[in-house]
Amino acid sequence: MAELESLETAAEHERILREIESTDTACIGPTLRSVYDGEEHGRFMEKLEARIRNHDREIEKMCNFHYQGFVDSITELLKVRGEAQKLKNQVTDTNRKLQNEGKELIIAMEELKQCRLQQRNISATVDKLTLCLPVLEMYSKLREQMKSKRHYPALKTLEHLEHTYLPQVSHYRFCKIMVDNIPKLREEIKEVSMSDLKDFLESIRKHSDKIGETAMKQAQQQRNLDNIVSQHPRISGGKKSKKEVCASSDLEVKNTSPMSEQDSGILDVEDEDEDEEVPGAQDLVDFSPVYRCLHIYSVLGARETFENYYRKQRRKQARLVLQPPSNMHETLDGYRKYFNQIVGFFVVEDHILHTTQGLVNRAYIDELWEMALSKTIAALRTHSSYCSDPSLVLDLKNLIVLFADTLQGYGFPVNQLFDMLLEIQDQYSETLLKKWSGVFRNILDSDNYSPIPVANEEVYKKIVGQFPFQDAELEKQPFPKKFPFSEFVPKVYNQIKEFIYACLKFSEDLHLSSTEVDDMIRKSTNLLLTRTLSNCLQNVIKRKNVGLTELVQIIINTTHLEKSCKFLEEFITNITNVLPETVHTTKLYGTTTFKDARHAAEEEIYTNLNQKIDQFLQLADYDWMAMEPGSRASDYLVDLIGFLRSTFAVFTHLPGDVDVHSTMSGKVAQTACMSACKHLSTSLMQLLLEAEVRQLTLGALQQFNLDVEECER
């Protein structure tokens, strides 16, 4: 058993030795560990020593076998050393020479290296400058644009600088400074552009008057052109206009009315050539600040802020424009300036609406216009109510029409303005009535209440041309002769026609139908007849110093004026082209007016006669206790009868047909005579029945009877 173990140990040691001989030194550790892990390392060492000795003997044998070759090799090696030393010396000498020769080359190479380095640096610098110079140029351009106030191009340059150029050189310090300045530059551009906008708003506020004046001149020129175009077919066709028809009729009179002396004109304050081109709003105002500011704020993303600011400021300006001056009603220029400012404001807004996208919209414009319309109408109602001059009211109407036509040309609804003009028409009629009241008073006060004498045919035709009078008997009479009426008849008739003309002037350009114009004229004329002229006639009739002769002449005059009413009807029909038979046509009340005046004159005659009779009766001095009567009638009664005879002789001038319901001529004379006789008889009876007469004699009664018989005769 022990032998078997010894054999295994020996075999193991042999294996380990072979492994040590064949294994790399670095990997021998595990092999040695297996020796020391066993218990036979002593025997292993013996084996190892034996193996080493064995190898030594083999090495010695090999060395002995190759010794001569080794000696020969050493000898050759010594020879080689000598040659190598020579070679070394040669190499050293060559190296020294090479070093000496290469020093200049090294210096040149160093210089070349430095040049190459400099060249590379310069190239890099050029490349960097190529990137930086556009940035600096753009920044310089930006500053120049800012300095020259070209803010929108400056903003575009700023955008290019920020998004295109600066990102390429963002790592440089000066670029960081630029980047930090960009928000400040933007803010500066915003502030400067806003300042320009404020200047623009202030400028258009000051120049709204001129802009509006220009726009209204354009509208006036367009209206004149339209009128020329519309009248051309009538001219070429040989037809007459309304005014020509009136001029050619036998009812035409001279322009003696105060209204005809100064026809109103809206834009005739300057003598301008009709063909001269009137500049538009864009020619008077530089809108570029608005456009620039709008673009700038749009680019900066603050468009909504800009729109709100612009609209807010323009609303404030609108309120200022719509506030009329306190003395606007005093002159037409006050109204004109007020309208010019309003038109100028909305012309600018309309231009902004059509040249910008969304800065203002139609809803905003309509809102402003509604406010302006209400305030304008309220102001006109207030201030026009102070106006008492019909010429100024007519001029104001023409100005309002031009104002409305101008704004209508820009698309604004103006129906309310024309409705308001119908209200002003009532006021205009009142001012006309007041003015014609003065005209009628002057005519009636200056009249001599005597028939108009005619010395020759020329004067006769002139009066017949002024007043529609036809009398075959009078025409046959030789000159000189007299018209039955006094001068106030043709004058009043002509002034009624002038009043109608004045009413017609107001109706022009109001877009009214012929029927509406006719109705308006007839209503106003009726007021003139029934109120103004009637009151003037009544005042003349009721005057204290009016005589019976004047009253008789008034009766004659009103009779002829009454007959002329049908000619006034025809006159209105000619200028309105509306036949009197048309439905709803208003009739003239002139007949009633003149009848009432005539009746008032008749009553005044009766009253005056009775007063005169009373004055004569106050002279009666009866002696109620007289024993014998006188030989003739009392002196007071003789004088009274003489007065009545001369008075009734005046009535022979009265026309035969004074009342359309009576065929009796001299009705007024008969009625006056009956009234006087009745009043005289009543007064004589009262003399007998007075309380103071307590007793009377037969002689007194006989004298009283003589007076009564004288009255009967």
List its salient traits.
713 residues, mainly alpha, Tetracycline Repressor, domain 2, Methane Monooxygenase Hydroxylase, Chain G, domain 1, two-stranded antiparallel ribbon, 24 helices, 2 strands, transport, EXC6B protein
Explain this structure:
Among the domains are: 172-226 and 282-412, no CATH class; 431-450 and 486-604, Exocyst complex subunit Sec15 C-terminal domain, N-terminal subdomain (Tetracycline Repressor, domain 2); 619-712, Methane Monooxygenase Hydroxylase, Chain G, domain 1. With 713 residues, it is an all-alpha fold. Strands 1-2 form a two-stranded antiparallel sheet. The chain has helices at 2-22, 29-37, 41-147, 151-165, 173-237, 242-248, 258-261, 281-284, 288-299, 303-321, 332-355, 362-384, 390-409, 415-446, 457-466, 472-476, 488-507, 514-541, 548-563, 565-576, 590-617, 635-650, 667-688, 698-712, and strands at residues 453-454, 481-482. The chain is rod-shaped and about 235 Å long.
Low-confidence stretches: 233-275, 655-665
Integer average pLDDT: 78
End-to-end Cα distance, whole Å, is 219 Å
Strand tally is 2
Query: Beta-strand level of the residues, as a percent range?
Result: under 5%
**Overall body shape:** rod-shaped
Family: Belongs to the SEC15 family.
Keywords: Coiled coil, Exocytosis, Transport
GO biological process, one term: vesicle tethering involved in exocytosis
InterPro entries: EXOC6/Sec15, EXOC6/Sec15_C, EXOC6/Sec15_C_dom1, EXOC6_Sec15_N, EXOC6PINT-1/Sec15/Tip20_C_dom2
